[in-house]
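pasting input
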Amino acid sequence: MSFLPEVFLHRFFEPLVGGGELWVGKPLDSEDLRALVAEAHSPDALLLSIDEKRSRMLRELMLTGGGLQTSPDDMRLVAAAHNILFLSHQAAKGLMVRKSRIKRVVAHAYRSLALPAPQTAAEVFSRFTITAGLGELHRTDVDLRFWIGHRKFVGTEPPARLGYWPSLRNVRQTRDVLRWRDTALSDGQLGLIRALYAASPLSDLLSPERKNPEFAWPNLLPYLRSASICRFVCHRYLGKGLNIVGPGMAQAFQSLLKEPEAAPAANGSPAGRKASIRFVAGLIQYLFACATLRDQPAATTLSDNQLLGLGALFVALRSTPELALSTDDLAGPPHVARYANCHGELVEFINRDFVEEWRTSIVTSLEN
Amino acid sequence: MLEHVAANQTRFVIPGIRPDARGIALGPFCVVLLPSIDRVVGLFRGLSESQSLDELLGGLKIVQVRTPLESQEFLVFLPVNNSYAADAIDAISALIGGVTFTGSERHFVKYRDSRSPMGYDLDNLSRTEGDILLYAPEFEQVYREERQIPFAQLALRLSVIRTRNDELEDGESLLLRLPVGLWRHVLGYLHRNGIAAEVAAAQPASAQNTESRVFLLRTRALPLRMAQLFSATPGIQIYRSIVERAAVEVGYRHPFELTAVTSIFDANRYYLYGGSVDRLEIVHTPRFVSASALVQVSTAPPTHLEAMSSVEPASFDVPLKMVQGGTGNRAVARWISAEDLPRLKMLAHWLPPQALAGYSVCSTDRGVFVYGQSGLDYLPLGEMFYPLSPNVLVSYGWELLPRINWEVLHQQLQVRSSELIFFSHKTQGALRIDRSHFEPLGRAAVAHLTTESLDVVAPTGVRQETNKLAFSLRNEALGSFPLWGFSDDEG
């Protein structure tokens, strides 16, 4: 059947923005993409309603902002997201599908994602309204066992005939709800997700806890220099909890210290690299300071085994005069006391060797 | 069985087909097969964007057809005289999921495609009975003609659609549709500000009385601030003239490119496509008159009326009385006596939600009054009242004499808009109740309820889980060849 843009918008783009069931079908090729781009040039009522949903989301994210219009670049991003999801489709791993054809799908998705980097905070948020749902995507896999074998249905329902006479055929059904991001992704998909993150950096920033692809600071720091983006990111990190986002942040900071050449190209000089380290160090301490704004004792909020990496880093940063956050920036004496208390508890709780290791790395990196 | 047309082939089995200048097999008509009427609209939308449809309209035909299995489809017949025009039609129909055929009379064969660049022909004609026969490589289908849809009817029935980036500009020529009470003021306002304007009172094409006239004001170079003022004024609609005989409300556009279909508009009519009210107004061609000729500029002092001495009229008071008489009005209120009150309570358990929400009730020392503006169909109790006016209710089967105008009655009774006056045949005078004493039956019927507070345990985890499942991934069934037809050329 020929590709119908309005069906794709209804079954994929609209739920990707507003939630619901996203249907992943055949990968979109060049001709389909051209039809989608043509749709963006003359939007119908459905696309206008999607724009309205995105605009509403944008206003909630930025607290300001006007209307959004789906651009051809946005359509390319949506098509690429669809094709990345297609690569997890059971049909893409079928016996009749040649690897060379899959490579062509991957290459086409790369071309779709070759978008200019967003220049303003509004553009960053605008693209995020498209990719935000990807991180929340869940898939239900059904494992069906019966008297003579078993079959697995990935993201799809088994046909009713396989469930007939359940007691006679000894039918057992196991349903697993998995987050798509946590499922086994191919190398091609991981590479495409990296490219997707480059096109929509806010999605990258908001998932430091992910395992694959690894979270890295250098390419993201230019975006964090925008106050609205940085504020939003901090808010989301604190919402998730530092015990969740902490390990990924600490690991990425370690990479930043070890690989000075990974600093932003614009800051290729040692001074620029140091500025990047200072920026991330300030951000981490700022997050701790915000976390201790709560009334609960710091230990219950922050003392968690998962926090060890970030906690040790925080203590090390506090003891490095060049990087330590001034207590003048805190919100009054009670907050200063809580902040000091949090620091004190972490000092007692965390192995000194970890802290020393961090300190050595930081000092070495700053001296080089 | 279809056959590929060879280069320089001159004889064809399909009647009416001949090679054009490029050697492509082409009949006098292109027929586009479409599954639904919205695709038909889509086809004309695409065609009107790229070419003028006026020259096609002479031979154009939209036919609703049925297959022998009674499924409904649409065929659009478009006259063509060369394969370039047919190619353009084919390109647009492919975008909206249509299939293009060519031929004449009742036999139509698939128009050329990449598999057969010169077109198709048949080895022999089908003898199946039917009004129209379509031949394609994948199928051969017979259709029965059901009805024809005139193109003008289709185009005039479409609603305009909202557009983006269609904002008012400074100094634009616009058409204002004004309410009766406002056009003189707007005219005076524009005249005082030195804006040239013309005004016309256009008669609707379907109405005969002059009261429903449409007042149109045409301005040239209207400043943006005034255009914004008018767009924010209730009752005023701003139109932009698209073609000579049609205008579309600013912020909206017709699905078709109207400049490409000017011949659908009657020469003696003017068409106003309203978007905010979703209405097409067809009026007689308005005759515009310069505003300066109509604005009243007067420097004469106000006329002093001579005071007239009033004479005390002779008193002839006519008493108001109730007599039995028929009425067709619906009962909107009931007066339920204290004896019937237990029945009303029992009935409240059975009333549907819309009745509980729509009925309002007022308890008095002389019984309960139930009022429902849209009727009291579910309540078979008490004395019924029908509305004589919005505020005066009279016993069902009775009427008031003399039959004075209800406005006079309001004046005599000094009725406030917040009051209801009940004329019952059981009482001597009228009963007056303030509307504020009425409350919804749903609220009044329920006795005092007690609730028990429960402690909520760990709500966050549940909510997070729900949010996560809001984005659910479903894989479509794609078969064994999901990449069949995948083309990654960027051309």
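fyi The first helix of chain A runs from residue 5 to 18.
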